[in-house]
Specification:
Number of helices: 18
Order of helices and strands: HHHHHHHEHHHEEEHEEHHHHHHH
Strand content: under 5%
Number of strands: 6
Largest sheet: 4 strands, mixed
Strand order of the largest sheet: 1-2-4-3
Distance between the termini: 18 Å
Helix content: 55-70%
């Protein structure tokens, strides 16, 4: 087996420096957390969930003309205190039953849970409410050990961890049917050790962002672990609008508390935005049409299905998350020395504040320049607000339109994957790697020439070594991401476009080789 040479120290140093941003003062970080929890329209979870309840009660009343069970439940909810409405309507299965019934009655097509099953679920929800049981019907049969919080800090309204027992209850059966329709892959019942790992990650997150953690998790009733099987393969975590109120985490990755803290917040924030969407004009009614504007996520590998192109909803959802992750990473990096004895070093287990800020900035700019017509009034106001929040966190703002750093982020991460791939097996016997190395060096020379720069010389033997060539590319291009004067160079747009072409072409070659997993 061929062992690639170790990374160039200069490249490693540049990459490490680029992952962490210069932090603002501690009082700014505290003020940002306050804003992300208390803004009346965009971050106050009680307000968002109250508006969600209004929307679902209205839908139940509409269903009531056909399904008496829906009207009965709507009447009960109308008379219930807001806190009880929020608890019941946080239930993933109840929400699905409402949405599926609405679609079947309005569009007349078969979709999701059948109408008789939806009616039975509405009836069971009414019984749950009349019995004054906590939470929603889906988690009602889970034991106390399934609560996410430690027993000593039980919440009035807690998040639960999915356990595959009492699957015969109506809500558990419906939940598994929804999972089959949307994911088609199994869930795992956590071991005692895995429950302890989840709680450790939660404690770390609460240490860093106590108020924001409580706010985000109030939108999540259920956390489920998944094994690396079927459609779960390649996923670190997941949540989606059609399975509202539940988040899913890779069973094999929860061992690192820094990783877990970030992904727990990440997926919970998606749920918070989904709840907001139900009660506000987040998106234009026809945003999802085939010719709707899309944004290229430059840090994701391109594929033939165009998954690296995001519609307005996915772009706004990612923007919303990255602004919050910027705050999380800034605080984690600031407190790492104090927390490392208990949780270990961060290492590569978090996105990094600079990366989160850069991705948020790019997505915010793209929302304004590319997908603005696809946003509703609330979505546009939220975008402006989040950009204001980002300005408070970004102490070294890059020039507008700069994307070189985002492209090289993908290139550097994939260079590490190539190194790992070549360690594990012999390289192809063809000259594919050598030709790719020469092509990337040639395109880099051309891009640098447009900027009146030159690629430093190297021994001719290295021209055909792909890992070495990639290190040379990084060493030549990383410093340019810090040079604001280059943005004024007339050749900059063309050079940046050429680098994009090179990086995406290289990514496709790596995928064809099987080096990306």
């Amino acid at each position: 087996m061929t062992t690639p040479p170790p990374p160039d120290p200069a490249v490693a140093a540049l990459t490490a420096l680029d992952v962490r941003a210069a932090p603002p003062d501690a009082d700014v970080l505290a003020a940002v957390e306050t804003a992300l929890v208390t803004h009346r329209a965009f971050s106050d979870s009680n307000y968002i969930r109250d508006q969600l309840a209004v929307a679902y009660r209205r839908r139940l009343h509409k269903l009531g003309g056909t399904l008496p069970e829906a009207e009965s439940l709507a009447t009960l909810l109308d008379a219930a205190p807001p806190a009880r409405q929020r608890q019941l309507l946080g239930d993933t299965v109840l929400r699905c039953a409402v949405q599926h019934a609405m679609r079947q009655l309005q569009l007349g097509d078969e979709y999701g849970l059948p109408l008789p099953q939806c009616a039975a679920l509405f009836r069971a929800a009414g019984e749950h409410l009349r019995a004054d049981l906590p939470g929603g019907p889906l988690v009602a049969h889970l034991p106390p050990l399934a609560r996410l919080h430690d027993e000593g800090s039980l919440q009035d309204e807690d998040t639960y961890i999915w356990h595959a027992w009492q699957e015969g209850t109506p809500y558990a059966r419906a939940f598994l049917a929804v999972m089959e329709d949307n994911y088609g892959a199994p869930l795992a019942t956590p071991t005692p050790q895995e429950r302890a790992l989840l709680r450790r990650g939660l404690r770390l997150l609460e240490t860093l962002l106590p108020r924001l953690t409580a706010s985000a998790l109030s939108h999540v009733q259920l956390i489920a672990l998944f094994p690396k099987l079927g459609t779960w393969r390649g996923k670190a975590s997941s949540s989606q609008f059609r399975v509202n109120g539940s988040v899913f985490l890779n069973q094999e990755l929860i061992g690192n508390p820094w990783w877990l803290a970030e992904h727990l917040l990440h997926e919970s924030l998606h749920q918070k935005l989904y709840d907001f969407r139900h009660g506000h004009s987040l998106l234009a009614p026809d945003y999802a049409r085939d010719d709707g504007a899309k944004v290229c996520s430059l840090w994701n590998a391109p594929d033939d299905d165009g998954n690296h192109y995001w519609d307005a909803h996915r772009t706004l959802a990612a923007f919303h998350v990255y602004v919050h992750l910027a705050l999380l990473c800034l605080l984690a990096e600031r407190q790492e020395a104090a927390l490392a004895p208990q949780y270990g070093p961060i290492g590569q287990h978090m996105s990094g504040s600079r990366r989160a800020i850069d991705r948020a900035r790019y997505l915010g700019e793209q929302l304004q320049s590319t997908t603005w017509p696809e946003l509703g009034l609330a979505g546009r106001h939220m975008t402006h607000w989040l950009l204001d929040v980002l300005d408070a966190l970004d102490t070294q703002r890059r020039p507008g339109g700069a994307t070189l750093h985002l492209l090289l982020d993908l290139y550097e991460r994939q260079s590490r994957k190539l190194d790992t791939y070549l360690v594990q097996q012999p390289p192809p016997r063809s000259d594919t790697l050598g030709l790719q190395a020469q092509q990337e060096l040639a395109m880099t020379r051309q891009a640098l020439h447009m900027l009146d720069r030159e690629l430093p010389p190297s021994p001719p033997a290295r021209e055909h070594d792909w890992p070495q060539a990639r290190q040379r590319v990084l060493q030549a291009l990383w410093p340019l991401t810090q040079d604001e004067t280059l943005m004024g160079n007339t050749g900059y747009p063309q050079a940046q476009a050429l680098v994009m072409q090179m990086v995406q072409q290289s990514s496709r070659q790596l995928a064809a080789l099987g080096a990306l997993g």
